[in-house]
Amino acid sequence: MHLVASERIKLFSIATPWVCGTFTVVALVFPAAIAALSAGEAHLPPTVASTQSGYQLAMVAVLVLAALAVTSEYHSGTIHGTFQAVPSRTPVLLAKAALVAGYAFLLGEAGAFTAWLVARVLAPDADLVLESAADWRIVAGTGPVFALAAVCGVGVGLLVRYTAGAVAVLVAYPLMVENLVQLIPRAGQAIHRWLPLNAVTKFLSGSGEANAGRDGGNAAVLSDSPLGPGWALAYFGLFAAVLLAAGIVRVKRRDA
């Protein structure tokens, strides 16, 4: 707990968590407000899923926040003092990952429920009641997904160490790479089915009916993952754990 407290002081003494946190919430709330306001003109009532249509952009902000929590310390040199105080390195890196994941969880839950509430206020006649497990998973599931995404961001930060490189990877991968994989002849679709963000999309949407709205109101299935929603989240968690472990191993070997 002392390590977590120390990491909290270091993290929140800079502007990064506040700027990225604000962007995360706005990225979730603003599209929900637009969807609710434009629903009347399109004669298409907003769905619970449409209130969370900004989750992908918000996740990018969480990934960048997590990476900067690591790379900013390497840039400033404060990480060396931390490692002198904790020579084994692993406990302090786990504390950092836990802190950033906890903050990301709070951002995800606050942003997702605020987006849903804003949509309910702006479209009071729409059926936005959370009355099924799928509805609750679409909204409340954002927090756990963002927490695991933050662990991935910390892992990438430990592996890359340089801010520009880490940010480039974490912006390009969710926005482009997984979609580009589908263009690989013959094997592209098979590979895409098992990619981590495709799997976690299955958790947040679950089915074609639950997907309606995440792609602007269409009921297209946005994830072709063969996993069920619960297993999809577990799969993403395993990916995050492996990425963090790889980052810790690299730090211990390089700094040994």
Automatic annotation (TrEMBL):
The chain crosses the membrane at residues 12-34, 54-72, 93-118, 138-160, 232-251. The keyword Transmembrane helix applies. It comes from the Bacteria. Keywords: Membrane, Transmembrane, Transmembrane helix. This is ABC transporter permease. It comes from Amycolatopsis bullii.
